[in-house]
Prior knowledge:
- The protein is an alpha/beta fold and 485 residues long.
- The protein has helices at 34-45, 61-65, 67-81, 88-98, 110-118, 176-181, 196-207, 227-239, 331-345, 374-379, 395-399, 428-431, 433-441, 445-449, 458-474; strands at residues 12-14, 21-30, 50-54, 122-132, 135-140, 144-154, 159-160, 173-174, 189-192, 212-216, 243-246, 250-254, 263-267, 272-275, 277-280, 284-285, 313-315, 318-320, 359-361, 366-371, 384-390, 406-412, 417-425.
- The model is unreliable at 1-19 and 478-485 (pLDDT under 50).
Amino acid sequence: MTPHRVVPCPASGPATDGKEAMERYDFVIIGAGPAGEAAAYEARDRGASVAIVDRDLFGGSCPHWGCVPSKSLLNGAARHSAGGDYPWSRASARRDYMINREGRDYPDDGGHVRGLEGAGARAYRGAGRLAGPGRVAISSDAADLEVAAQAVILAVGSATKVPPVAGIETIRTWTNKEATGARELPRSLLVLGGGPTGIEIAQVYARFGVPTQVVQSGARLLPHDHPRNSEAARLALEADGVRVRLGVRALRARARAGADGADVVDLDDGSTAEGHAVLLAVGRTFPVGGLGLDTIGIDPGDRTALPRDGRLRITEGVYVAGDVAGPELHTHQAHYQGVMAVRMALGDAVTPDYRALPRATYTDPELAFVGVSLEQARAEGRDAFELVADFPTTAKGYSVEATFGHVTIVVDRLSRQLLGAAMATPDASAAIHECVLAIKARVPIDVLADTIHAFPSTSRILNGLFNDAAKMLAGDRAVPAEPLP
């Protein structure tokens, strides 16, 4: 079928209300991170006219302060901890190369701007906000103007959440920007929050010899991941010397009140935690208050209007994509949603599908999860069972001298399909994608079991679990009602 293509709007023309001439676009995109960029390229590929605006870095946080620099630093930390000639100075310099910050204080996003303009999009450096139905006000470096849009995509990303801790403003706090952009090692590091950002950064600095501790208010690290991955994360951090504090919450902060001038955070169990730098990794906030949503009849504080459930369309002609859209916070989700929002706006009969949304945390070992856990499946009313392989006892685990880790699958008895999978293995972020595709395409367990997997890969471990599940479903032996040990 030939893709639907819109006829581009003229570069300028009469305003919809007749008051003045203004530039007109098929799409105006506020935010040029992964979601905004993906939307812009998809729209231009479909023949639509595009204006895209961002007040900060085109490309967003991921290539400059998030995904790319953190993975570069994790690589450096792994090589350093293995005894290689990879000091912090080398890791820092490599990170600067990766984010286009060599010899300068701030990354250069010119490549992202040139790419968008080369594709035919109009890029504005400045702030964008809705000014009414079909209208966007842009305050750019060059001028303030209003443009008309057939569709608006809000792809404004998210920002570090500052926890409600008394005195937090008096201490030396880091966001992910300072954590991934530091050129000097802190004397010690305290991480508030045990999500992916917190544990990745903790492992980096611990491996470079920085005394590091993580304070997590919940009962486990990675509360949205599979429980076995949470346990693997704890074991990995502790193996690198990180002190992990679970089930304790920060109450107040005291500047330079600790040993050697460290900042002190008082915890609700009566103890304290100290750090010369304190990374805030307790969650994200979504900058929707200044987007002019009230001009189109939406209260930005109303969760029913902006439910973060991934539906994307919030009213006629207005879409959200990326972090602000939910349901989770991933660059790959943002890219998917940017493309999906454009397709929906152009009339394609598509709906976002998050059943096979992969999660990956790039610690050593890597952690990955897709679909649902056994507990989540049963909460949904599914008749499901779980099979688990202990990674150290597998051929792959033996070969890398693993001391912990797992590969887990969740199977639905009725449909005979995979519902979820999780793993803590050196290559989990890659190996999980067989399960991503299996869930997305609803591949029967029998087909997965009958597929040849290379030995002794992590995927071969999956093959054994698929075979066991197929035999159980065929009645060769009883399917366990509870998780295997």
